[in-house]
Amino acid sequence: KEQREQSEKVYDTQCPYCSVQCHMQLIEQRSVTRKSYKTIGKNNPTSKGRLCIKGINAHQHALHKDRLTQPLRKIGEEFVPVSWEEALAFMADSITNIQKEDGHHGMSVYGSASITNEEAYLMGKFARVALKTKHIDYNGRLCMSAAASAASAVFGMDRGLTNALEEIPYAETIVLAGTNIAECQPTIMPYFEQAKENGALIVAIDPRETETSRIADLHMKIKPGTDAALANGLLKVIIEEGLVDPSFIEERVTGFKEVKEHIASLDEGEIVEKTGIPLKDIHRVARALGQKETGMIFTARGVEQQTDGSMAVRNFLNILVATGKIGKPSCGYGAITGQSNGQGAREHGQKADQLPGYRSIENDEHRTHMANVWGIEEKELPRKGVSVFEMIEKADRGEIAGMFLLCSNPVVSNPNARFVKQALKKLKFLVAVDLFKSETAQLADLILPASSYLEDEGTMTNLEGRVTLREASMKAPGEARHDWKIICDVARALGKGQYFSFHSAEDVFNELRVASSGGIADYYGMTYARLREKKGILWPCPSLEHEGTSRIFEHAFAHPEGRAKMSVVPNEPPVKKEKTCEDYPLYLTTGRIMAHYLTGVQTRKSPSLTARDFEPFLEIHPQTAQTYNLPDGTLARIESRRGSIIVRSKWTEKIRRDTVFVPFHWDEKQNVNRLVVDDLDPNCRMPGFKVSAVKVETL
Ligand code: SF4
């Protein structure tokens, strides 16, 4: 025992998976014969020392033997290890050739929301300054774009949670729309459980009973894809029963009159029929939201990943604004971000239409600010590009010839995934930066080995907008490099080193601070020293004396006139959702389970997590299953208009009879995204992941 204690090493770190970013310690114990690891939670303002099964086992992927340790170049069908010099020279030649033949915009950059703020910032700068391409977007497009678009439209800005988590226990009404927090962000469930203990009415809106809906006082088992209509139903009761806040509307809101007129024209019976939610339940929730002093609404991908997801979220925000439940204690909105840096990665210029600090790439003043920070002419800055799925469509049409892909796995994560694979195969040059040879990396011409959460350095912004510093605990294995360094190395190889002369992540952060200064997501007042000392600061933090902002919109919204903007949301989406029919009689919806993260590139490497959930499943109501002669626990083929997959059936009465569910963490042959529609929300370009028509059959 004495010997083991003497060789114990403790690494302070943060979980790399979801947006809670739980703080934790990895304890390495060495004895004469073996080395072992365990992870324990570390106290911090967000997760308070709690961890879920993913965090506890995160080191299993980071320390996995399959980690990439050298650049790999594809020669024929084989990947061959090469030196960094050779890899960078190959990459520079390939990019130069593509841009000679296809122009600057022939290259594209596909970023990630699992990287640090510094890396997200560098990705945007790399695309616009080193490559001069407009084609940059990131995988958060598939995750946060609907909520971000809605919050920007109504509030004028988008921060995941408008209030710090600690306000949740004191909210009297809590609506959880399309969010399964208990499985996806389990360590923040106690905030909601505490609210319930305090007497709050908890409402879950979800076609399935989930671990989250178990705590709800009322579960609205909604028909998939009808959230916007349900919000209209709630708004109708609130407005027609006089449950709005007239002085708040008078002083701080525009557009109420138009919404009121529209709502008057809607028929409650139609809303009930469309959503499948009884009128008495709509009345109960609307009255709770309107009559109580405090209330909060949370949305996640269930509402957002639809072709009208941005409008559905906007309608939930209409409710908050009409009832004055925003900008006050325990009154507000939360988009429950999925990826670890889902918040920060969307603030610093990785989006097709944005520059750092949430600046617009089409706004002249914003363009000039960023051109000055980067030391280039404003006219050199490319204009707005297209979303990730549209970049893939362009690759399919030959309009994009090369792609620099960082920590993303689009072959599994995008809708209509078989098409995505075919499109990426048409690229003249694909480089993937990753920890493992993911399904997409296997298509690449070059794979560059990246650093894991244990080796990274940089800042992350959690779902509250709280920025924390992640410091490196270990050295990356073999020749793997920090992602920020890889981006700078590639820029140098392209002859753009003068714009990327950073020596550390902190150097990058100091430029990011200046870039964000005066913007919406203002980080100027944060330094590494302050972040270390304060254990995190919530943005905006515009000066070195500023303490950060835990609750936003207390005095004004972020639109120029300071008012929130309500707007009419129709019951019917502008892009028609796929309907069930004789050939495809069931709705398919998709989602996460607790043991896995995103496309499973990391969690499928963890023996403990795969032991718990080693394959996807088809969740189906027993009566529905019997209709199709599908026994419980047997292999079933699920087919949509785009393809089919085979997964094991799992009978449960927790799901609607017209709907089936499959989680999306598995690779090609079991990848439910092969089945999913690729129609996009016209406002934010989010694909409609959550509503597809399918049929099931026994094998
Ligand atoms: Fe915390 Fe999320 Fe990691 Fe679980 S997955 S430990 S909730 S950060």
TrEMBL record:
Cellular component terms (Gene Ontology): membrane
InterPro entries named among the record's database cross-references: Asp_de-COase-like_dom_sf, MoPterin_dinucl-bd_dom, Mopterin_OxRdtase, Mopterin_OxRdtase_4Fe-4S_dom, Mopterin_OxRdtase_prok_CS, Prok_molybdopt-oxidoreductase
Pfam family, one: Molybdopterin
Cofactor(s) listed in the protein's UniProt record: Mo-bis(molybdopterin guanine dinucleotide)
Domain 4Fe-4S Mo/W bis-MGD-type: 8-66
Gene Ontology molecular functions: 4 iron, 4 sulfur cluster binding; metal ion binding; molybdopterin cofactor binding; NADH dehydrogenase activity
A Gene Ontology biological process term: respiratory electron transport chain
Keywords: 4Fe-4S, Iron, Iron-sulfur, Metal-binding
Protein name: Nitrite reductase
